[in-house]
Amino acid sequence: MPLAEITHRTFDHVDTWVFDLDNTLYPHHVNLWQQVDVRIRDYVSRWLNVSPDEARRIQKDYYLRFGTTMRGMMSLHGVSADDYLAYVHQIDHSPLEPNPAMGAAIAKLPGRKLILTNGSVDHVDKVLERLGLSGHFEAVFDIIAAELEPKPAPQTYERFLRLHDVDPAKAAMFEDLARNLVVPHQLGMTTVLVVPDGTREVVREDWELEGRDASHVDYVTDDLTGFLEGLAKQKS
């Protein structure tokens, strides 16, 4: 479904396009984040000297409570952000394939294109290179730029908007987690939830796949490339 039915806001006024990275700019079924997920579990297990099963429980608890496992590990256990990020992002990016159609659709969108992610710039650069999307984005706002406060913390979005001089009333946000669209919608952004296409197995928590019918979600798509192509045609 390239374009979902309009529920609230349109894109007529949008001049800034804000994208999450993982499971948004590439398909959920690639399960790239699953590699990071495993390394997070291993990091927690080693740091806290607990079993992998206990580490998994702690990992998911902190993810829900703090926005990222890293934030929980920093707040409660004194973990270094640099050490943590360097370890968990040592993954194989080769499952990602170039997506020239998405690149062309992004290029046709009028205005600025930015990335807002809870990951690191290094990870973003590697993903964009594999997707063939390097050069399509004006800037990346990562977890370091966020002063280690992850989405969905309100101050993270506010810091992003200030730093990049973005008017939320003229911006759209693309995300794979509905909870990360609550604040953008409250600020006035048009929101798009990117969901799995249903044809391939995905490794996600149940709550991560919820929220399609939430009032703060203006659009839902399982085909971001097709969705952007549709927008580009509307704007041309």
Provide keyphrases for this structure.
236 residues, alpha/beta, Rossmann fold, 2 domains, 6-stranded parallel sheet, 41% helix, globular, disordered N terminus
Write up this protein.
The chain has 236 residues and is an alpha/beta fold. It folds into two domains: 16-28 and 96-235, HAD superfamily/HAD-like (Rossmann fold, 3-Layer(aba) Sandwich); 33-88, DNA polymerase, domain 1 (Orthogonal Bundle). Helices cover 41% and strands 11% of the residues. The chain is built from nine helices and six strands. The protein has helices spanning 32-48, 52-66, 69-77, 81-88, 100-108, 121-131, 154-163, 182-187, 224-235, and strands spanning 16-19, 112-116, 139-141, 171-175, 190-194, 219-221. It has a six-stranded parallel β-sheet with strand order 3-2-1-4-5-6, with no helix packed on it. Strand 2 (112-116), helix 6 and strand 3 form a beta-alpha-beta unit. Helix 5 runs parallel beside helix 9 (224-235). 38% of the residues are buried. Residues 1-6 have low confidence and may be disordered.
* Chain oligomer state: single chain
**Number of separate domains:** 2
Tell me the series of helices and strands, N- to C-terminal: EHHHHHEHEHEHEEH
Q: Output the structural class.
A: alpha/beta
Helical segment tally?
A: 9
The best one-word shape is: globular
Poorly predicted parts? 1-6
Rounded to the nearest angstrom, the distance between the terminal CA atoms is: 21 Å
Q: Would you summarize the structure shown here?
A:
The protein is α/β, with parallel strands linked by helices. Helix content is 41%, strand content 11%. The relative contact order is 0.20.
